[in-house]
Amino acid sequence: MKSFAENLKEQRIERGFTKKEFAEYMGIPFDTYKAYEQGSRTPKIEVILNFAKALNVSVDYLVGMDEEKNHLSPNLMFNSDEEEQLIRKFRLVNPRLQRVVMEILDVAIDFLESDSDQEAYPIPMIEKRYYYGRPSAGAGNGALDLDGIIRIRDSRDARKADFVLQVDGRSMEPEFKDGDFVLVKSQDDIEDGEIGIWCVDGEIYIKEKNGNTLHSLNPEYEDVPLTDFSDIRCYGKVIGKAEI
To answer: Looking at the predicted structure, is the pLDDT value of residue 139 above 80?
Structure first.
C-alpha cells in the first residue's frame, strides 16, 4: 500500500501538474507542498480533503487506506449554495471576527469529536412528594393520600412545587391531558382564572376557579357547582406540568 506522499505525487503527475503549478492551484506555499510530497510534513484533514477533491480521488485512496481510487461524485467536487454563502459572509468580516468564527467552529468540532458526546448527559432531577388519588378531570375521585416520593426533571416551576399529582380524565384538555403529572404549590385558595386541586364533598378535582363554580376547560364536560352546603377544600395551585 502506497503512502499519502506517494499517492499525492502520482496523482499530481497523472493530471499534468508540476509541483509549482499544483501548489499555486491549491493556494499552498511551494515549500509547504514540497514537504507534503516528500513526506516530511503531514497536512491537516481539511487540506487532504481539498487534495482529494482537486485530484478526483477518495480520501481513503489518497492516504493509502484503499487501493481503489473511488473517484468522487461530481456533486462532491463543488460547494453547495449554503457553503458558498457561508464563505462569502466569512470573507466580508474583518480578520478579528474571522478568528472568532474559527474559534467557535473549533469548539464545536472538538465537542463533536470528544468521547463525552457518545454518552448522554445526565438530566438534573429533583424529588417531590407524590400523592395518590388522581385529581379528576372528569367525574371526581376520593381524597389524597401520600404515596411516596417521585423523581421529576428539575426546573424553576418544579422547585416551587410542594407536591405532584397525576391527572385523571379529559375535562381540562387541551391544557392538561389524561395521565399528565402536574406540579402543585400548596395554598388554601386561589384566584379566579387559576387552576387548582380541589376536594369537593370528598371528590378530588383539577379545575379552574370561576366564582362559585369549578370550571372545566373542555366544553364537553360540565362545571362543578359550589354551594353553601358543599364541603370544599383547596389543596393548592397548579403551576405547571412535571416531566418524569
So the answer is: no
